[in-house]
Amino acid sequence: MSSHSARLAALREQLARQRLDGFVVPLTDEHMSEYVGAYAQRLAWLTGFQGSAGTAVVLPQEAAIFTDGRYTLQVREQVDGGDWQFVGVPETSVAQWLEHHAADGARIGFDPWLHTRAWVDEASAALAKVGATLVAVDTNPIDAIWPDRPAPSDATLSVHGDAVAGRSSADKRAAVADWLAEQKADAVVLAALDSIAWLLNVRGADVARTPVALAYAIVNADGTADLYVSPGKMTDAVRQHLGNAVRVHDRAAFAPALGGFAGKRVAVDPSLSVAAIPLAIEAGGGTILALRDPVVIPKACKNPAEIAGHHAASLRDGAALTRFLRWIAIEGPKGGQTELSAAARLQEFREATGALKDLSFDTISATGPHGAIPHYHVTGESNAPIEPGQLYLIDSGGQYADGTTDLTRVVPIGAPTAEMRDRFTRVLKGHIALATAVFPHGTTGQQLDALARLPLWRAGLDFAHGTGHGVGSYLSVHEGPARIAKPGYAGGGPQEPLRAGMILSNEPGYYKAGDYGIRIENLLLIVEREILGGETPMLAFETLTLAPIDRDLIEPALLDAAERVWLDAYHARVETALGAVLEGEDRGWLIERCRPIGR
Predict the structure, then answer these.
(1) What is the pLDDT at residue 285?
(2) How many whole angstroms separate alpha carbon 272 and alpha carbon 275?
(3) Close Cβ partners of 494 (under 8 Å, ≥ 6 residues apart)
(4) To the nearest whole number, what is the mean pLDDT of the chain?
(5) Terminus-to-terminus CA distance in the chain, angstroms?
(6) What percent of the chain has pLDDT over 90?
(7) Would you state the pLDDT for residue 112?
(8) How far is residue 201's CA from residue 161's CA, in Å, rounded to a whole number?
(9) Cα 313 from Cα 6, distance rounded (Å)
(10) Fewer CB near the last or first residue (10 Å), C or N of the chain?
(11) What is the C-alpha R_g of the chain?
């Protein structure tokens, strides 16, 4: 019996001890985070799945793991199909599956600190149809059988200075207070870690690749705030920065504090807060206002200082990536390199900038068939050699104090096939179509998504992930609320209106299972665009990312005149910007790779 099979068996025994007939295991934490600390990696510990989104359900005689299209191949590679059924979302939700698999009278457990209230209501209704019940647990049964479960991080907070933040915390809190007055609310509970970091102009190191601290915050109608965080995380510099208007409490005091709102109106974001929060407030006599976190939109719409920071980070990061692209173009065909060695080399180039705080996510270093797994996670066991004839895909990013980066490039190791060039060029055409889009205020990512897919659709092709996600300012590499995606995409957010100042990724792709993968990703800034003779105010995209797109994979005959103009102009801009900071052979290689297409 494998270790993961043994863990599944142990969980079933624990469920029996807790008088439960099943349990739901989401990949999140008590803040509804996408990326979580090691202590909250319950799904990975139980199943072996290393993706960033998924859920498991364990019943006495069967178990299922739910993932979206990004992980269709990966979950089957990492999770034992003998123990687990593989279920795709959003085609089948957890609640729908439970309705058809839970027994009459079954008690299905869930941790109320790991699910939203909407999920609880949906799952409860589905189970009620078959005479089963959803039961909140006081102790997570995974924790009871995880003997070496890591403790939550004890890293200290740091100050995110006003110069890079662009606004003081006092100014941000005053804006929240104004919002509370408009809503006739007494307070708002902030549970999302990046919201708290942005509001208070602090950063942390409690979640790998995301500079946030494990904390909760309550902002009051007078603009003061209560921060709930482990005392050991505070430093004198952070205390001085927060000032007297931010009262600091032990994180353990947060749950009891929720019972102290009798007769008061408290705003809680239903999508970013776990069910335990509104339930505790209501139990104490408070009234819940289900409203969007007031930090979400101002955090997503970058201010001038944050935009300037992103430009600086993009230049710095683009230079590091270009040095890497030259290195892999030379070393890859020689043999001897692997997915892990290449990822390590790229990190060295980023570290050489002297400004890297962390990677913005685990680098997707994928060669050959692994490139066909959109969110492939290389491990010591899966590490593959980079060999001639393959396409090597590198999706990576850095965390810098002035910005967060995320970009993807593909490099042919040796001569690419005609099919590879065709597919790459179609992906490039979609990338250009989105990058050059001009659209009116109120347009959603859902409305733009097809632009990036149309060149693939015309050849009977598509890709099974969203086209773009929001990116934070030295915060989460996946930031809401906006997305560019098909309707119903599991990542959420495609119906959110796009606004000036938002930064989103542009990353169409193509994946041939068992052979290769292609993705071209740049970050885009939404800007106001005045159209000569136009009557409607418009928005457009400005490309932030600076790095050459591999010309050996482009089939020029497939590009129309406008696409050639965009590509040549982009490469001219890349050459000018990066040529000013690169030296010697790196600069010479850049100039050669950025020459106009067809020359």
Answers:
(1) 98
(2) 10
(3) 444, 445, 446, 449, 466, 483, 484, 485, 486, 487
(4) 96
(5) 59
(6) 94
(7) 97
(8) 7
(9) 46
(10) C
(11) 24
* Among candidate residues 394, 427, 392, 398, the one with its CA nearest the CA of residue 408: 394
d(CA 116, CA 557): 50
**pLDDT confidence of residue 448:** 97
CB atoms within 10 A of CB 122: 18
Scan for tokens 């043999």, then name that residue. 335
Report the candidate in 336, 303, 69 with the shortest Cα–Cα distance to residue 172: 303
Tokens representing 379 are 């491990």
pLDDT in tens, 497-546: 999 999 999 999 999 999 999 999 999 999 999 999 999 999 999 999 99
Q: Given 3-state DSSP classes, what are the helix, strand and coil percentages for the chain, each rounded to the nearest 5?
A: 40, 20, 40
DSSP-based three-state secondary structure for 245: coil
The answer to whether the bond into 90 is cis (omega within 30° of 0) is: yes
**DSSP character at residue 210:** B
| Nearest residue to 303 via CA among 540, 476, 503 | 503
How many helices (DSSP H) and strands (DSSP E) are in the chain?
19, 28
Instruction: Quote the CA–CA distance of 544 and 375 in Å, as a whole number.
Output: 23
Separation of alpha carbons 410 and 389, rounded Å = 13
Local structure of residue 596 (DSSP, 8 states): P
Q: Which amino acid is at 34?
A: E
Contact indicator for 477, 360 with CB cutoff of 8 Å = yes
d(CA 406, CA 505): 8
The whole-model pTM stands at 0.94
